[in-house]
Every structure is written in structure tokens, then in C-alpha cells.
Amino acid sequence: MTVSELIILKKIPYKESSLIVSGLSASFGRLDFIAKGSEKISKKKFPAIDLFRIVSIEFNPEKDSLQPIYKAEIVENFDAVADSSASFKDACAIAAFVLKNTKPHMRCDFLFKAVSTAFLRLCAAPGKFPCLALVKLAYLFENGLLPEPDGKINNLLSVASGDSDETGLKENGDKKISQWIDSLCVYHDIA
Question: What's residue 143's pLDDT?
Fold first, then answer.
């Protein structure tokens, strides 16, 4: 058995009380699981698996098919994302981008950190940061698809990873950065 942290990015109800779950692990990339009985609620059991939560999961990485989660515990939740419709929409866009572009069993430490930072910022300061653009930038960086990093790119990568809160951008800078990152995604055929 292996233990890893997973950011839950998608869940689909399955049968009476189970879920099919997709998420991002720093060590294993995109992972898909079946969480049997995870919707059951009792005095002793609270559902740990829900959207936009980081959970510590125990699973068997040897299996190729949809594998079960043997144990799940909440590490951090970003439930406050749902307090703002704009934040929730941004979080869903981040989840869609990550699920579409990541592959199973490929480490993505920097992207994991950028996604968790983005969700934290969407809870604490909605609209302050271009979260989707910063997650895309982290993805491009981790996959070697950025031009040679200079001071500005390094500063943005520091903001994406949560190491800095200062973007150094002037008014409308977020829009220009987002357009530049989107153009890099289009160039590399990334949706």
C-alpha cells in the first residue's frame, strides 16, 4: 500500500454510496479511483472525499484499472471556494484544465503546489490573483514549455507556487499575463 496526498478535482456518484474520484497527486500525477461507501454518513463517519479538498489516501499503485481507495483522511479543505460563484467557477476551470492535461503516474510537484495555492487564494482573496493563468504557467514550467525564465517569469512562478504574494503587475497586467500564457498554451496545443 502507498499513501499520497490527492487534490480532489472531480467526483461522480456511483451506485448507492460510492464515488468515482479523479484528482492530482504530486507523486503520481492524475489518479482515478473508486471510493466505495464514501457517501455514507454516520455518527462516527464523515465523508472525507469532496471537491477541492486535499486528502491523504491509501491505495495500491500497482493496479492499472480503476482502483479502490482503502483509506482517506482530510488534510486540507477548500470548501470556502463555494462561498463565491466567481471563485467556484475559477476552481472548476482549474480542475478542468488539470484533468485534461495531466497524465497518470507522472510526478507534478510544482503543479500540485500551484493548484493548492490557487484554491487557497480563491478561498481567502477571490479575484486578487489570476489563479487559472498561474496554474497554467506552473504546468508549462513543469513540462519544459516556457521560454528561458527571466526575472519576470521567475517572479510569476514564485507567485504561482505561493512563495510570494507580490505579482509586480500594474493595472491590467493580470490580463496581459493571462493572454500571454493562453497564447503559449495555444502554441503548444494545450487546452
Answer: 94
